[in-house]
Design a protein that fits this description.
Layout: H1 23-40, H2 45-53, H3 57-62, H4 64-79, H5 87-95, E1 135-138, E2 157-167, H6 170-173, E3 182-190, H7 191-195, E4 203-209, E5 213-215
Antiparallel strand pairs: 1-2, 1-5, 2-3, 3-4
Helix pairs in contact: 1-4, 2-4
Organism: Streptomyces griseochromogenes
Domain Nitrile hydratase beta subunit-like N-terminal: 1-100
Protein name: nitrile hydratase
Amino acid sequence: MGGTRGWGPVHPPRPDEPVFEEPWQGKAFALAILSSRVACGGINTDAFRHALERLDRAAYLDDGYYGRWINAGELLLTDSTVLAPGAVDARARSLRGEHVREPAVPEPTRPDYRPAAEGSLRTVDTAPAFAVGRRVRARDMSPAGHTRLPGYLRGRTGVVELVQPAAVLPDTNAHFLGENPQHVYSVRFDSYELWGADAEPFALTAELYECYLETTS
């Protein structure tokens, strides 16, 4: 859970775990992908992740992995008014034989979104701000919207291990505010730097966008 305490140990998947434990999960996966494309006017993984983040606790945890995908897809469709609020619940109740009045189909207000190219990799004209071996600090920031900077890295210092290709910035792309491509860096953090002297000894490497980083004094 992004380094949040209190959720217990991580349980790795079984080596023989199937992609879909039950048939409905495959349908949920397909419906979530289709919903995202219809709502966003194209593939926008960042907008879908932001929808996942905005689910309440029950919608995110109680319905399981593929259940939250369905819930996120429904949220995106509601955001773009492809669906009216409560339309899915009303239809489900009607299919169960209840006499429920379903809301009228609204006029869609999809975002004006077209990706500049396939995938997330892009080319930028500026040189990387940080070189391999440079000590950097993850910015201590608390953005109101979507970000891929984990909370447990903010304000912590690490070392650049690799300069990755530039990519679309999720923080703006999730909100349809432009791709804003930036260089990406693989940064190594010591476990003691992140979780204190009582942490198990290991190194954690994170891929971080240029705007997430600053030089150390």
